[in-house]
Specification:
It is built from two helices and six strands; from the N terminus they run H-E-E-H-E-E-E-E. By secondary structure, it is of the alpha+beta class.
Length: 131
């Protein structure tokens, strides 16, 4: 009976995840900064994250950690973690690409960065005035 409930829970989780909104990726990708370019205060060790996209059912391992994606986005924006608030990073996928969506705010602007979870490139970025 436990197996049935476990399978039902996994199935419902996959359905819920597939219903999540997804952003459109910009094909003009910006290369990610190298590890040497990130200030020591924001550098974190690289870890792997395993995600199961609902379309394939096969786990995929990615080398860019949440903390590394946050560091890449902050560096691309020219900001430090102390200068931002409402920092959030979520792993998402679209068109066979898994990426980190990193969102944060300053007093003046709201930022969104989409970081490729395999190689750390900035796939897309948005900056809007903070109302």
């Amino acid at each position: 009976m436990k197996k049935v409930w476990s399978l039902a829970l996994v199935f419902l989780l996959l359905i819920a995840l597939s219903a999540c909104g997804q952003a459109t990726a910009d094909p003009a990708a910006v290369p990610a900064p190298s590890d040497n370019d990130v200030p020591a205060s924001t550098e974190v060790p690289t870890t792997t994250t395993t995600v199961t996209p609902p379309t394939t059912g096969t786990p995929t391992v990615h080398t860019i950690s949440r903390d590394r994606a946050v560091a890449i986005a902050l560096q691309a924006a020219g900001l430090t973690q102390e200068q931002v608030f409402d920092l959030d990073a979520e792993l998402d996928w679209e068109r066979k690409m898994i990426y980190w969506e990193v969102d944060f705010e300053t007093r003046e602007y709201e930022y969104s960065y989409y970081i490729n979870a395999d190689n750390g490139t900035v796939v897309r970025s948005d900056k809007e005035p903070n109302d």
